[in-house]
Protein backbone atom coordinates (compact mmCIF):
# COMPACT_ATOMS: atom_id res chain seq x y z
CA UNK A 1 0.00 0.00 0.00
CA UNK A 2 1.31 3.47 -0.92
CA UNK A 3 2.46 5.08 2.34
CA UNK A 4 1.69 8.57 0.99
CA UNK A 5 -2.04 7.82 0.87
CA UNK A 6 -3.92 9.12 3.92
CA UNK A 7 -7.64 9.26 4.60
CA UNK A 8 -9.31 12.52 5.55
CA UNK A 9 -10.91 15.65 4.16
CA UNK A 10 -8.06 17.92 5.23
CA UNK A 11 -5.44 15.56 3.80
CA UNK A 12 -7.20 15.35 0.41
CA UNK A 13 -8.89 18.74 0.13
CA UNK A 14 -7.57 19.55 -3.36
CA UNK A 15 -8.99 16.44 -5.02
CA UNK A 16 -12.13 16.71 -2.90
CA UNK A 17 -12.69 20.31 -4.06
CA UNK A 18 -12.15 19.29 -7.66
CA UNK A 19 -14.74 16.54 -7.31
CA UNK A 20 -17.19 19.07 -5.82
CA UNK A 21 -16.74 21.18 -8.96
CA UNK A 22 -17.21 18.15 -11.20
CA UNK A 23 -20.44 17.26 -9.41
CA UNK A 24 -21.73 20.79 -9.89
CA UNK A 25 -21.39 20.19 -13.61
CA UNK A 26 -23.06 16.78 -13.29
CA UNK A 27 -26.00 18.36 -11.45
CA UNK A 28 -26.25 21.17 -13.96
CA UNK A 29 -26.98 18.62 -16.68
CA UNK A 30 -30.15 17.56 -14.82
CA UNK A 31 -31.08 21.18 -14.14
CA UNK A 32 -31.36 21.74 -17.90
CA UNK A 33 -34.66 19.83 -17.85
CA UNK A 34 -36.39 20.96 -14.68
CA UNK A 35 -38.23 23.99 -16.03
CA UNK A 36 -38.31 23.71 -19.79
CA UNK A 37 -38.69 20.10 -21.00
CA UNK A 38 -42.26 19.42 -19.75
CA UNK A 39 -43.34 22.64 -21.48
CA UNK A 40 -41.55 21.59 -24.67
CA UNK A 41 -43.74 18.49 -24.64
CA UNK A 42 -47.02 20.35 -24.23
CA UNK A 43 -46.26 23.55 -26.19
CA UNK A 44 -43.96 22.47 -29.03
CA UNK A 45 -44.92 18.83 -29.57
CA UNK A 46 -48.59 19.33 -28.55
CA UNK A 47 -48.74 16.32 -26.22
CA UNK A 48 -52.00 16.29 -24.30
CA UNK A 49 -51.63 13.19 -22.10
CA UNK A 50 -49.83 13.82 -18.80
CA UNK A 51 -48.38 10.32 -18.72
CA UNK A 52 -46.82 10.78 -22.17
CA UNK A 53 -45.33 14.13 -21.16
CA UNK A 54 -43.86 12.53 -18.04
CA UNK A 55 -42.41 9.63 -20.07
CA UNK A 56 -39.05 11.38 -20.32
CA UNK A 57 -38.77 11.32 -16.50
CA UNK A 58 -39.74 7.64 -16.39
CA UNK A 59 -37.06 6.83 -18.99
CA UNK A 60 -34.48 8.86 -17.07
CA UNK A 61 -35.33 7.30 -13.71
CA UNK A 62 -35.36 3.66 -14.84
CA UNK A 63 -32.12 3.93 -16.80
CA UNK A 64 -30.34 5.87 -14.06
CA UNK A 65 -31.47 3.37 -11.43
CA UNK A 66 -30.10 0.35 -13.29
CA UNK A 67 -26.91 2.22 -14.13
CA UNK A 68 -26.46 3.02 -10.43
CA UNK A 69 -26.79 -0.69 -9.70
CA UNK A 70 -23.83 -1.65 -11.87
CA UNK A 71 -21.76 1.49 -11.34
CA UNK A 72 -20.07 0.17 -8.20
CA UNK A 73 -19.20 -3.11 -9.93
CA UNK A 74 -17.75 -1.19 -12.88
CA UNK A 75 -15.81 1.07 -10.51
CA UNK A 76 -14.23 -1.90 -8.76
CA UNK A 77 -13.33 -3.51 -12.08
CA UNK A 78 -12.22 -0.53 -14.16
CA UNK A 79 -11.42 2.18 -11.52
CA UNK A 80 -13.56 5.12 -10.42
CA UNK A 81 -11.95 7.57 -12.85
CA UNK A 82 -12.63 5.49 -15.96
CA UNK A 83 -16.29 5.14 -15.04
CA UNK A 84 -16.53 8.90 -14.39
CA UNK A 85 -15.04 9.67 -17.81
CA UNK A 86 -17.40 7.17 -19.45
CA UNK A 87 -20.34 8.95 -17.80
CA UNK A 88 -19.31 12.24 -19.36
CA UNK A 89 -18.78 10.67 -22.79
CA UNK A 90 -22.30 9.22 -22.72
CA UNK A 91 -23.74 12.57 -21.58
CA UNK A 92 -22.01 14.67 -24.23
CA UNK A 93 -24.81 14.40 -26.87
CA UNK A 94 -27.61 15.20 -24.38
CA UNK A 95 -27.79 19.03 -24.67
CA UNK A 96 -27.65 18.80 -28.47
CA UNK A 97 -30.56 16.34 -28.54
CA UNK A 98 -32.61 18.47 -26.15
CA UNK A 99 -31.94 21.61 -28.18
CA UNK A 100 -32.56 20.27 -31.68
CA UNK A 101 -34.29 16.88 -31.41
CA UNK A 102 -37.09 16.88 -34.04
CA UNK A 103 -39.59 14.74 -32.11
CA UNK A 104 -40.51 13.67 -28.59
CA UNK A 105 -38.75 10.34 -29.18
CA UNK A 106 -35.48 12.24 -29.48
CA UNK A 107 -36.15 13.89 -26.12
CA UNK A 108 -36.77 10.49 -24.54
CA UNK A 109 -33.57 9.20 -26.18
CA UNK A 110 -31.68 12.14 -24.67
CA UNK A 111 -33.01 11.15 -21.26
CA UNK A 112 -31.89 7.56 -21.70
CA UNK A 113 -28.37 8.88 -22.31
CA UNK A 114 -28.73 11.35 -19.44
CA UNK A 115 -29.80 8.55 -17.09
CA UNK A 116 -26.75 6.47 -17.99
CA UNK A 117 -24.48 9.49 -17.69
CA UNK A 118 -25.86 10.51 -14.30
CA UNK A 119 -25.80 6.95 -12.98
CA UNK A 120 -22.11 6.67 -13.81
CA UNK A 121 -20.81 10.19 -13.16
CA UNK A 122 -22.80 11.12 -10.03
CA UNK A 123 -22.22 7.68 -8.51
CA UNK A 124 -18.49 8.09 -8.99
CA UNK A 125 -18.35 11.54 -7.39
CA UNK A 126 -20.11 10.02 -4.37
CA UNK A 127 -17.82 7.00 -4.18
CA UNK A 128 -14.66 9.03 -4.75
CA UNK A 129 -15.47 11.48 -1.95
CA UNK A 130 -16.34 8.64 0.42
CA UNK A 131 -13.02 7.00 -0.49
CA UNK A 132 -11.03 10.16 0.23
CA UNK A 133 -12.47 11.23 3.58
CA UNK A 134 -12.70 7.91 5.41
CA UNK A 135 -15.37 7.17 8.02
CA UNK A 136 -15.14 10.21 10.33
CA UNK A 137 -16.36 12.98 8.00
CA UNK A 138 -18.66 10.98 5.79
CA UNK A 139 -21.78 13.04 6.51
CA UNK A 140 -19.94 16.27 5.75
CA UNK A 141 -18.55 14.79 2.53
CA UNK A 142 -21.99 13.72 1.34
CA UNK A 143 -23.46 17.08 2.30
CA UNK A 144 -20.89 18.97 0.25
CA UNK A 145 -21.23 16.59 -2.69
CA UNK A 146 -25.01 16.80 -2.85
CA UNK A 147 -25.01 20.54 -2.12
CA UNK A 148 -22.83 21.09 -5.16
CA UNK A 149 -24.90 18.86 -7.40
CA UNK A 150 -28.36 20.02 -6.42
CA UNK A 151 -27.31 23.64 -6.02
CA UNK A 152 -26.31 23.47 -9.66
CA UNK A 153 -29.65 21.83 -10.51
CA UNK A 154 -31.47 24.81 -8.97
CA UNK A 155 -29.30 27.50 -10.54
CA UNK A 156 -29.58 25.90 -13.96
CA UNK A 157 -33.36 25.48 -13.63
CA UNK A 158 -33.63 29.20 -12.86
CA UNK A 159 -31.34 30.22 -15.72
CA UNK A 160 -33.15 28.07 -18.27
CA UNK A 161 -36.48 29.55 -17.15
CA UNK A 162 -35.26 33.09 -17.74
CA UNK A 163 -33.62 32.22 -21.05
CA UNK A 164 -36.79 30.45 -22.21
CA UNK A 165 -38.94 33.46 -21.24
CA UNK A 166 -36.67 35.73 -23.29
CA UNK A 167 -35.63 33.57 -26.26
CA UNK A 168 -38.09 30.67 -26.40
CA UNK A 169 -38.15 27.08 -25.19
CA UNK A 170 -35.51 25.83 -27.67
CA UNK A 171 -32.61 25.79 -28.42
CA UNK A 172 -31.08 28.63 -26.35
CA UNK A 173 -31.79 27.27 -22.82
CA UNK A 174 -29.74 24.16 -23.60
CA UNK A 175 -26.56 25.94 -24.68
CA UNK A 176 -25.51 25.92 -21.01
CA UNK A 177 -25.47 22.14 -21.10
CA UNK A 178 -22.90 22.07 -23.87
CA UNK A 179 -20.51 24.07 -21.65
CA UNK A 180 -21.22 21.75 -18.69
CA UNK A 181 -20.58 18.57 -20.68
CA UNK A 182 -17.35 19.71 -22.30
CA UNK A 183 -15.93 21.15 -19.05
CA UNK A 184 -16.87 18.05 -17.04
CA UNK A 185 -15.28 15.72 -19.55
CA UNK A 186 -12.02 17.69 -19.76
CA UNK A 187 -11.66 17.96 -15.97
CA UNK A 188 -12.38 14.26 -15.49
CA UNK A 189 -9.87 13.18 -18.13
CA UNK A 190 -6.98 15.50 -17.32
CA UNK A 191 -7.22 16.57 -13.66
CA UNK A 192 -9.21 14.04 -11.56
CA UNK A 193 -7.21 11.19 -9.99
CA UNK A 194 -8.57 7.74 -9.23
CA UNK A 195 -9.42 7.06 -5.56
CA UNK A 196 -9.70 3.28 -5.41
CA UNK A 197 -6.40 2.99 -3.47
CA UNK A 198 -8.01 5.00 -0.65
CA UNK A 199 -10.88 2.50 -0.43
CA UNK A 200 -8.37 -0.34 -0.38
CA UNK A 201 -6.52 1.35 2.49
CA UNK A 202 -9.71 1.74 4.53
CA UNK A 203 -10.71 -1.84 3.76
CA UNK A 204 -7.38 -3.08 5.07
CA UNK A 205 -7.93 -1.08 8.27
CA UNK A 206 -11.54 -2.25 8.79
CA UNK A 207 -12.15 -5.72 10.25
CA UNK A 208 -15.01 -7.90 9.09
CA UNK A 209 -16.68 -8.88 12.36
CA UNK A 210 -20.26 -9.66 11.38
CA UNK A 211 -21.48 -13.20 11.85
CA UNK A 212 -22.75 -14.46 8.53
CA UNK A 213 -20.89 -11.91 6.42
CA UNK A 214 -18.65 -13.59 3.83
CA UNK A 215 -14.93 -13.33 4.52
CA UNK A 216 -14.21 -12.61 0.85
CA UNK A 217 -15.70 -9.76 -1.17
CA UNK A 218 -19.35 -10.73 -1.80
CA UNK A 219 -21.02 -10.72 -5.21
CA UNK A 220 -23.63 -8.21 -6.35
CA UNK A 221 -26.49 -10.65 -5.63
CA UNK A 222 -25.51 -10.91 -1.96
CA UNK A 223 -25.07 -7.15 -1.68
CA UNK A 224 -28.43 -6.51 -3.38
CA UNK A 225 -30.28 -8.79 -0.95
CA UNK A 226 -28.43 -7.41 2.06
CA UNK A 227 -29.01 -3.78 1.14
CA UNK A 228 -32.57 -4.15 -0.12
CA UNK A 229 -34.19 -6.52 2.36
CA UNK A 230 -32.17 -8.43 4.93
CA UNK A 231 -30.75 -5.55 6.93
CA UNK A 232 -33.54 -3.55 8.56
CA UNK A 233 -31.59 -0.29 8.63
CA UNK A 234 -30.62 -0.54 4.98
CA UNK A 235 -34.18 -1.53 4.04
CA UNK A 236 -35.49 1.58 5.79
CA UNK A 237 -32.90 3.72 4.02
CA UNK A 238 -33.72 2.28 0.58
CA UNK A 239 -37.47 2.82 0.85
CA UNK A 240 -36.96 6.37 2.15
CA UNK A 241 -34.65 7.13 -0.76
CA UNK A 242 -37.22 5.80 -3.21
CA UNK A 243 -40.03 7.92 -1.74
CA UNK A 244 -37.79 10.97 -1.55
CA UNK A 245 -37.12 10.78 -5.29
CA UNK A 246 -40.77 9.93 -5.94
CA UNK A 247 -41.41 13.47 -4.72
CA UNK A 248 -38.77 14.84 -7.06
CA UNK A 249 -40.06 12.86 -10.04
CA UNK A 250 -43.61 14.00 -9.36
CA UNK A 251 -42.64 17.66 -8.97
CA UNK A 252 -40.37 17.55 -12.04
CA UNK A 253 -43.32 16.78 -14.28
CA UNK A 254 -46.28 18.21 -12.37
CA UNK A 255 -45.10 21.59 -11.09
CA UNK A 256 -44.45 23.33 -14.45
CA UNK A 257 -47.81 22.23 -15.85
CA UNK A 258 -49.72 22.83 -12.59
CA UNK A 259 -48.45 26.35 -11.96
CA UNK A 260 -48.74 27.43 -15.59
CA UNK A 261 -52.38 26.27 -15.46
CA UNK A 262 -52.85 28.36 -12.28
CA UNK A 263 -51.66 31.51 -14.04
CA UNK A 264 -48.03 31.61 -12.89
CA UNK A 265 -45.65 32.93 -15.57
CA UNK A 266 -42.62 31.11 -16.91
CA UNK A 267 -40.24 33.16 -14.74
CA UNK A 268 -42.32 32.27 -11.65
CA UNK A 269 -42.27 28.60 -12.57
CA UNK A 270 -38.50 28.91 -12.96
CA UNK A 271 -38.25 30.25 -9.39
CA UNK A 272 -40.47 27.48 -8.00
CA UNK A 273 -38.44 24.84 -9.81
CA UNK A 274 -35.13 26.44 -8.79
CA UNK A 275 -35.87 26.96 -5.08
CA UNK A 276 -36.59 23.29 -4.38
CA UNK A 277 -33.18 21.93 -5.50
CA UNK A 278 -31.33 25.09 -4.41
CA UNK A 279 -32.52 24.79 -0.79
CA UNK A 280 -32.02 21.03 -1.05
CA UNK A 281 -28.46 21.58 -2.23
CA UNK A 282 -27.30 24.43 -0.02
CA UNK A 283 -28.98 23.02 3.07
CA UNK A 284 -26.79 19.93 2.91
CA UNK A 285 -23.74 22.01 3.79
CA UNK A 286 -25.30 22.14 7.27
CA UNK A 287 -27.25 18.87 7.44
CA UNK A 288 -24.29 16.76 6.29
CA UNK A 289 -22.12 17.56 9.32
CA UNK A 290 -25.23 17.56 11.52
CA UNK A 291 -25.75 13.91 10.53
CA UNK A 292 -22.27 13.19 11.87
CA UNK A 293 -23.15 14.81 15.22
CA UNK A 294 -26.71 13.73 16.00
CA UNK A 295 -26.97 10.59 13.89
CA UNK A 296 -28.73 9.62 10.69
CA UNK A 297 -32.19 8.55 11.88
CA UNK A 298 -33.50 11.88 13.28
CA UNK A 299 -32.67 13.74 10.10
CA UNK A 300 -34.24 11.07 7.89
CA UNK A 301 -37.50 10.85 9.88
CA UNK A 302 -38.04 14.57 10.33
CA UNK A 303 -36.87 15.32 6.80
CA UNK A 304 -39.63 13.11 5.41
CA UNK A 305 -42.18 14.83 7.66
CA UNK A 306 -41.05 18.31 6.54
CA UNK A 307 -41.44 17.24 2.91
CA UNK A 308 -44.97 16.03 3.66
CA UNK A 309 -45.80 19.48 5.07
CA UNK A 310 -44.44 21.02 1.87
CA UNK A 311 -46.94 19.02 -0.13
CA UNK A 312 -49.75 20.21 2.15
CA UNK A 313 -48.77 23.86 1.62
CA UNK A 314 -48.80 23.45 -2.16
CA UNK A 315 -51.92 21.30 -2.31
CA UNK A 316 -54.02 23.39 0.10
CA UNK A 317 -53.46 26.58 -1.97
CA UNK A 318 -53.81 28.78 1.15
CA UNK A 319 -51.98 31.67 -0.55
CA UNK A 320 -51.63 32.71 -4.15
CA UNK A 321 -50.30 29.97 -6.47
CA UNK A 322 -46.86 31.59 -6.73
CA UNK A 323 -46.54 32.13 -2.96
CA UNK A 324 -47.77 28.62 -2.18
CA UNK A 325 -45.41 27.17 -4.77
CA UNK A 326 -42.38 28.99 -3.39
CA UNK A 327 -43.22 28.22 0.27
CA UNK A 328 -43.92 24.57 -0.52
CA UNK A 329 -40.70 24.30 -2.53
CA UNK A 330 -38.70 25.73 0.39
CA UNK A 331 -40.15 23.05 2.68
CA UNK A 332 -39.58 20.29 0.12
CA UNK A 333 -36.00 21.46 -0.32
CA UNK A 334 -35.37 21.72 3.42
CA UNK A 335 -36.79 18.26 4.09
CA UNK A 336 -34.77 16.73 1.29
CA UNK A 337 -31.62 18.47 2.53
CA UNK A 338 -32.15 16.78 5.89
CA UNK A 339 -32.68 13.37 4.33
CA UNK A 340 -30.20 13.15 1.46
CA UNK A 341 -26.74 13.17 3.07
CA UNK A 342 -28.01 11.18 6.05
CA UNK A 343 -29.25 8.41 3.76
CA UNK A 344 -25.97 8.19 1.84
CA UNK A 345 -23.94 8.29 5.05
CA UNK A 346 -26.15 5.61 6.61
CA UNK A 347 -25.43 3.23 3.75
CA UNK A 348 -21.71 4.03 3.92
CA UNK A 349 -21.76 3.38 7.68
CA UNK A 350 -23.41 -0.01 7.33
CA UNK A 351 -21.50 -1.43 4.37
CA UNK A 352 -17.96 -2.77 4.73
CA UNK A 353 -15.49 -0.87 2.49
CA UNK A 354 -14.89 -4.04 0.46
CA UNK A 355 -18.50 -3.92 -0.84
CA UNK A 356 -19.50 -0.33 -0.05
CA UNK A 357 -19.42 0.88 -3.67
CA UNK A 358 -21.80 -1.93 -4.67
CA UNK A 359 -24.08 -1.24 -1.68
CA UNK A 360 -24.24 2.45 -2.55
CA UNK A 361 -25.13 1.41 -6.09
CA UNK A 362 -28.01 -0.74 -4.80
CA UNK A 363 -29.28 2.09 -2.59
CA UNK A 364 -29.07 4.54 -5.50
CA UNK A 365 -30.90 2.00 -7.66
CA UNK A 366 -33.89 2.04 -5.33
CA UNK A 367 -33.62 5.79 -4.75
CA UNK A 368 -33.65 6.68 -8.43
CA UNK A 369 -36.37 4.22 -9.33
CA UNK A 370 -38.35 6.79 -7.35
CA UNK A 371 -38.11 9.20 -10.29
CA UNK A 372 -39.93 6.71 -12.52
CA UNK A 373 -42.43 5.71 -9.82
CA UNK A 374 -43.20 9.36 -9.04
CA UNK A 375 -43.67 10.32 -12.70
CA UNK A 376 -45.80 7.23 -13.39
CA UNK A 377 -47.92 7.83 -10.29
CA UNK A 378 -48.32 11.49 -11.18
CA UNK A 379 -49.29 10.74 -14.77
CA UNK A 380 -51.95 8.20 -13.78
CA UNK A 381 -53.40 10.28 -10.93
CA UNK A 382 -53.33 13.56 -12.89
CA UNK A 383 -55.11 11.98 -15.85
CA UNK A 384 -57.92 10.71 -13.63
CA UNK A 385 -58.24 13.27 -10.86
CA UNK A 386 -56.16 16.31 -11.84
CA UNK A 387 -52.60 17.49 -11.25
CA UNK A 388 -53.21 18.69 -7.68
CA UNK A 389 -54.15 15.18 -6.53
CA UNK A 390 -50.73 13.92 -7.53
CA UNK A 391 -49.34 16.40 -4.98
CA UNK A 392 -51.78 15.21 -2.28
CA UNK A 393 -50.92 11.53 -2.78
CA UNK A 394 -47.17 12.18 -2.76
CA UNK A 395 -47.52 13.99 0.57
CA UNK A 396 -49.37 11.07 2.18
CA UNK A 397 -46.83 8.51 0.92
CA UNK A 398 -43.96 10.66 2.19
CA UNK A 399 -45.44 10.87 5.68
CA UNK A 400 -45.91 7.08 5.83
CA UNK A 401 -42.31 6.56 4.68
CA UNK A 402 -41.06 8.70 7.59
CA UNK A 403 -43.12 6.60 10.01
CA UNK A 404 -41.59 3.43 8.57
CA UNK A 405 -38.05 4.75 9.16
CA UNK A 406 -39.05 5.69 12.70
CA UNK A 407 -40.19 2.11 13.36
CA UNK A 408 -37.57 0.10 11.44
CA UNK A 409 -34.28 1.97 11.75
CA UNK A 410 -32.17 1.14 14.82
CA UNK A 411 -29.55 3.81 15.61
CA UNK A 412 -26.68 4.06 15.85
CA UNK A 413 -25.46 2.34 12.71
CA UNK A 414 -22.07 0.74 13.25
CA UNK A 415 -19.33 2.24 11.11
CA UNK A 416 -17.08 -0.76 10.97
CA UNK A 417 -19.38 -3.62 10.13
CA UNK A 418 -22.94 -4.32 9.11
CA UNK A 419 -25.19 -6.09 11.58
CA UNK A 420 -27.69 -8.46 10.04
CA UNK A 421 -30.94 -7.16 11.52
CA UNK A 422 -33.50 -8.77 9.26
CA UNK A 423 -36.70 -7.13 8.14
UniProtKB/TrEMBL annotation:
Keywords: Cell membrane, Membrane, Transmembrane, Transmembrane helix, Transport. It is found in: Cell membrane. SUPFAM superfamilies: MFS general substrate transporter (SSF103473). The keyword Metal-binding does not apply. GO terms for cellular component: plasma membrane. The chain crosses the membrane at residues 12-32, 52-71, 83-100, 106-126, 147-168, 174-192, 299-319, 325-344, 388-407. This is MFS transporter. It comes from the Bacteria. Residues 1-196, 233-423 form the Major facilitator superfamily (MFS) profile domain. InterPro entries: MFS, MFS_dom, MFS_trans_sf, MFS_Transporters, Sugar_transporter_CS. One of its GO terms (molecular function) is transmembrane transporter activity. It comes from Chitinophaga parva. It is a multi-pass membrane protein. Its main location: membrane. Gene3D superfamilies: MFS general substrate transporter like domains. The keyword Transmembrane helix applies.
Amino acid sequence: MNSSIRLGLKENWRQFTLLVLVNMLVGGMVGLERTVVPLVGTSEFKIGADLVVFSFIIAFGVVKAFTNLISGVLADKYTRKRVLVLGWLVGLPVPFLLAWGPSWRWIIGANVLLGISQGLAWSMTVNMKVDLVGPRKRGLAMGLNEAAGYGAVGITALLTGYIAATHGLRPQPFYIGIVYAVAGLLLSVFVVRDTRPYAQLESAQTPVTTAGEPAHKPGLGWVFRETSLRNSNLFAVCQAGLINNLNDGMSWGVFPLLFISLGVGLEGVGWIKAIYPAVWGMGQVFTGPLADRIGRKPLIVWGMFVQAVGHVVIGAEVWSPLTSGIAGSVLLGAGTAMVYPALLAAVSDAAHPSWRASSLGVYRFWRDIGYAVGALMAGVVASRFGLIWAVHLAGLITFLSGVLVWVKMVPPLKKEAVHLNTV
